[in-house]
Amino acid sequence: MLDLGHNKLTSVPDALADLDGLTDFLYLHDNRLTSLPLALERLTKLRYLNLSENALEVFPKCVSSMSSLVELRISDNCLASLPDSIGHLLQLRELHLRNNRLITLPVSIGMLQDLRHIDLRGNPLIDLPVTIAALPRLEKLDLRWVATLISPVWIEPLEARGCTVYR
Predict the structure, then answer these.
(1) Any idea what the Cα angle at residue 98 is, between residues 136 and 95, rounded to 5°?
(2) How many CA atoms lie within 13 A of 143 on its CB side?
(3) Would you identify the CATH topology of the domain 1-78?
(4) With contact defined as beta carbons under 8 Å apart, do 131 and 153 qualify?
């Protein structure tokens, strides 16, 4: 585990990727990061990453290579979109995207078959891909404080199968 949160960091060194034993938690939240070094893509054993409360406008490319991630927190940033490569995070169970600038999500989110929780609170969403409805293990979809989204037709069937949708 490495906790670098609450430090006003504006960058992290490439050498962070050399920490082979970093498998459980990497906390980089509450800093001033605008990007992450591509070298961090080597952290393929990392299970939990918290990038919340930074100044990220673009989803860091290296994160899509962190194939063991189970939980990703990237709330309270300035993300306007997610890349299709988010679908590479096949172990992901929780995805926290609260308070960004997202207007939609990529269709590839449907590849995250282990996903159980998606937090989209406070985003100016106008559309969500129907692939979310097909996520077999989804238990919680949080859409509170999203005034811009017309409820998709697939929300009710999703709720009917046991997923809690907060709106």
Answers:
(1) 35
(2) 23
(3) 3.80.10
(4) no
pTM of the model: 0.96
Question: Scanning the structure block, which residue is given the tokens 């077999």?
Answer: 136
Q: How would you write the pLDDT of the chain (167 residues) with one tens digit per residue?
A: 999 999 999 999 999 999 989 999 999 999 999 999 999 999 999 999 999 999 999 999 999 999 999 999 999 999 999 999 999 999 999 999 999 999 999 999 999 999 999 999 999 999 999 999 999 999 999 999 999 999 999 999 999 999 999 99
What is the DSSP code (8-state) at residue 31? S
Query: What is the three-class DSSP state of 3?
Result: strand
Q: What are phi and psi of 164, to 5 degrees?
A: -85, 125
- List, by residue range, all CATH 3.80.10.10 domains of the chain: 1-78
Alpha helices by DSSP H, listed for 30-135, are: none
Torsion of CA 82, 84, 88, 90, to 10 degrees: 70
